[in-house]
Write a structure and sequence with these properties.
Chain lengths: 329, 533
């Protein structure tokens, strides 16, 4: 039997269905797992994606030939029967299930197994071959309880407030920021201030009916306004930019799985690191592979070497697709 | 241990020096003395047990964590490569205990759990370490591992710790610094003596903290009339404190190392001083004539704990003393330099032993005359001039204002080795490409790479040191413990926006390995920036 998904220069390709998954070069037909920039790009002839993620794609990619699909609804592409299943990564994120002649492959896209109030939880989809991400594919990555981290963030803001400082929390504008706002709502009523890049994504989440902490736009505040004691969410790219200079006295934190390692925080000079990730940690990667029942695994991006060796040692034939996906979290 | 872990966490956040000091003061005020003594020991770079009392080697720790976390050893190694810190890797590979054990104080962990099994059989040592891993939450587990692997490296200088102790105890920082010199063992009793406002018996037997000069960055005219200043040559030797008290003799280097036995001719001269005294001066290789031997000659002497007759004959040494800190048991440090100096000259002239002589005054009527004399420094084998305010007391540490070093060749710096990389060709198996850093606040910032200047013997020695003191690996590059200081020479400094330090040095090379210099005393980035065009 030939492989249902192969690696092509333009991305992962399904020959039976004549479509690509999250391609990085223009192709006629793409199935998109989620709206992050390294997975959803412009230039594709048509876009198949999970319906809850459609507004995100429209924001990121503008008007395109979209084909939204409800989670679990099967549709035909060529000879392949395709369906999208929740990946638990961000709003509208999907795993791609492909079935041809009784053989089932699943491409995970990015996923996590932790609870996330902003998106549907990861669904275990039994398959023969599982294509998994491996962003955090080392046993040092084990995520703490997110509610606990949310409490730490609130306590940090209060500490900053007592010192007349602003608490600037860097986090990815799409997904992570909204998840934090949803988690924080359980621990505080004090609105957070948002960088413009985060505000747009937050509006999309609000329109989708996801309850989150109240927010205000930094840009709407009077020039020279005082943000002492406030929590400000900004994308990591804002660090060191002129935008950040308005917060005269501030501490800077970063919410990311990478903050699990002390050296990452120290190298980038963050005052605080909060371990919150939208990717699977090591135990979750192993558990997911096991639960899918896959006899073969292909790792796409991240710390693939360790995961591949560990799975092979455990008797699961595992290989690698060298993709262009990034390690942002 | 929770209290110390909290302190570590506060220090580890990249907050300013004021916050760090406040955290330290609060800790020293509240912690039980037995804990505080160990905290002081650890924050000063002390290790538990050390080479004589082994608790766990890094290989054992890796093996034990592999077993305890059911992680194959190759995956432990991969994890370590990704983290770059063994203590942290060990902590990351285990989950927190469901219910953490009741808190045990820091000193109890060390004195009741760890030290009793030092050098015991592997099974006993393993049992203690693993029990700790199983009972401690992440922050404490990480710190516990740091106790085993050594050096906390949390960006706290010795000076900052001493400031905090002084503030918490109300004891003058100079006295704290003095009581911490030399060897001590961490205990409640030691801490009590350290922070006692009463005079302590040991106070009389220990050296005084050195007063250090700052580099002169402007023209000396800014210092006011030259008549207010005493000028001396800046010798290129080893700074020494010579102590003779009631027949006891000690030689202390600035690295707080006792040099007893290494310079018997100096000890002999000290023994015959007419009065008890504590002198501050420079040890120099000196055959005869007017100029010292180059510093490299002295290096052969530093290495020898008990020099033989040949070494003594090949490299004779002498001390040129420039200050008198104590005479017949009286602490003279508060007296003006001019008064101390007069007593010093009187003492040493009566002694008349050339092996301990007075560093001569350099007479100049105007700053212009002084500049002229300074220009001839190289021919005299000196590094320039020292400018010391005649009315100033002998202070401690590097306090700007009263002691300046006015070096001739400003284009040398003492920098700390930060990274090493294997060389090419003949040197491809050796770590011979070095990156050096200077102090910027409490941090060391890389400023220069240098590939040459050491001889083959030194390269081998440094290579072995690098392998044994690697703290992190980034591909082929190793980060090393911040300990080794090198004097670098270079042709020019330019401002550069491409370099993190904001400057670029031209043609840097290693002039020498400063075994004698503690890394805290490497140069500051500001000093280099001031030279940049």
């Amino acid at each position: 039997m030939t492989d249902l998904i192969v690696l092509r220069p333009e991305g992962l390709y399904c020959p039976a269905g004549d479509f690509h998954i999250d391609p990085w070069r223009p192709v006629p037909r793409a199935v998109i797992t989620h709206g992050h920039g390294d997975h959803a790009r412009t230039g594709m002839g048509e876009y198949h994606a999970a319906a809850p993620g459609l507004p995100i794609l429209q924001w990121r990619l503008g008007a395109q030939a979209y084909h939204p699909h409800a989670y679990g609804d099967a549709f035909a592409l060529g000879d392949a029967r395709v369906s999208l299943h929740p990946a638990g990564h961000v709003l509208g994120s999907a795993q791609v299930r492909i079935e041809v002649d009784g053989e089932v492959w699943v491409a995970s896209g990015d996923y996590k197994r932790q609870h996330d109030p902003t998106c549907a939880p990861f669904e275990v989809v039994p398959c023969d071959v599982f294509i998994t991400e491996a962003t955090f594919g080392l046993p040092i990555y084990r995520w703490p309880d997110t509610a606990e981290v949310a409490r730490d963030i609130v306590a940090w803001r209060e500490e900053c407030a007592a010192r007349g400082e602003t608490a600037i929390l860097y986090c990815y504008a799409l997904g992570k920021a909204q998840r934090l706002l949803a988690e924080l709502a359980a621990h505080t009523d004090r609105p957070a201030f948002l960088h413009g890049a985060i505000d747009t994504g937050t509006t999309i989440y609000r329109d989708a009916g996801i309850p989150m902490l109240g927010t205000r736009r930094v840009a709407d505040e009077a020039r020279g306004g005082d943000f002492a004691g406030e929590l400000v969410l900004a994308p990591p790219s804002a660090a060191g930019s002129p935008w950040i200079r308005r917060f005269r006295k501030a501490q800077q934190g970063f919410a990311s799985g990478w903050m699990r390692i002390r050296g990452n925080r120290r190298r980038r000079n963050y005052d605080r690191g909060f371990v919150v990730s939208d990717h699977a940690d090591w135990p979750a990667l192993l558990r997911t592979v096991r639960e899918t029942g896959a006899r073969r695994v292909i790792a796409t991006h991240g710390a693939t070497d360790a995961l591949v060796r560990a799975l092979n040692d455990a008797g699961i034939a595992t290989g690698v697709f060298r993709t262009d996906y990034g390690g942002d979290d | 241990m929770r209290r110390f872990a909290d302190l570590f966490t506060r220090l580890d956040r990249s907050t300013g020096t004021g916050d760090k000091r406040a955290a330290l003061v609060a800790y020293f005020r509240d912690a039980p003395p037995a804990d505080a003594a160990w905290a002081l020991w650890l924050l000063s770079g002390g290790k538990i047990g050390g080479s004589r009392a082994r608790i766990a080697s890094s290989g054992e720790l890796r093996a034990w964590i592999a077993e305890e976390s059911a992680t194959p050893s190759w995956l432990v190694d991969d994890s370590y490569d990704a983290v770059g810190d063994l203590a942290e890797t060990l902590a990351l590979l285990l989950d927190d205990p469901a219910t953490p054990a009741p808190d045990l104080p820091l000193h109890a962990w060390i004195e009741r759990r760890l030290l009793p099994v030092a050098n015991a059989d592997a099974a006993s040592r393993r049992a203690v370490v693993v029990a700790a891993w199983r009972s401690l939450a992440f922050a404490e587990r990480f710190l516990f591992n740091k106790l085993l692997t050594g050096a906390l490296r949390v960006g706290v200088s010795r000076g900052l710790v001493q400031q905090a102790l002084a503030e918490a105890s109300g004891v003058d920082i100079a006295l704290i610094a003095q009581r911490m010199l030399g060897e001590w063992t961490p205990s409640a009793a030691f801490l009590q003596r350290l922070t006692s406002r009463e005079a302590q018996p040991g106070d009389a037997a220990s050296p005084y903290p050195f007063f250090l000069a700052s580099p002169l960055e402007s023209e000396p005219d800014a210092l006011g009339p030259i008549a207010d200043w005493l000028l001396e040559w800046k010798w290129d030797g080893i700074r020494l404190q010579l102590i003779r008290r009631a027949g006891d003799i000690a030689l202390w280097s600035r690295g707080e190392e006792r040099l007893d036995g290494r310079f018997p001719e100096i000890e002999a001269a000290l023994a015959t001083l007419p009065r008890d005294a504590v002198l501050d001066g420079e040890l120099l290789g000196w055959r005869d004539g007017d100029a010292p031997l180059p510093f490299t000659a002295l290096q052969t002497r530093i290495q020898r704990r008990k020099p033989g007759a040949k070494t003594l004959a090949d490299t004779p040494v002498r001390v040129l003393a420039y200050d008198l800190l104590e005479l017949d048991g009286d602490d003279l440090r508060a007296h003006p330099l001019e008064a101390r100096r007069a007593l010093l000259e009187d003492l040493l002239e009566r002694h008349g032993d050339p092996r301990i002589a007075v560093s001569p005054r350099v007479e100049a009527a105007t700053w212009a005359d002084a500049a002229g004399l300074r220009a001839g420094s190289r021919a005299r084998g000196v590094e320039g001039l020292m400018l010391k305010r005649r009315a100033a007391p002998y202070q401690h540490g590097r306090k700007r204002g009263d002691w300046w070093k006015w070096k001739i060749d400003p284009l040398t710096i003492d920098a700390v080795l930060l990274y090493a990389q294997a060389g090419h060709g003949r040197r491809s198996t050796l770590y011979t490409d070095y990156t050096f850093g200077l102090w910027d606040g409490d941090a060391l910032v890389p400023v220069a790479k240098a590939y040459s200047g050491l001889d083959d013997r030194e390269i081998l020695k440094l290579d072995a040191w690098i392998r044994a003191h690697t703290t992190e690996r980034f591909g082929p590059v190793r980060a090393v413990a911040h300990e080794q200081v090198f004097e670098l020479g270079f042709e020019a400094v330019n401002r550069s926006s491409r370099h993190k330090s904001g400057i670029a040095v031209r043609f840097p090379r290693i002039l020498r390995w400063r075994h004698d210099k503690p890394m805290q005393e490497a140069d500051r980035l500001d000093a280099l920036k001031a030279l940049a065009r």
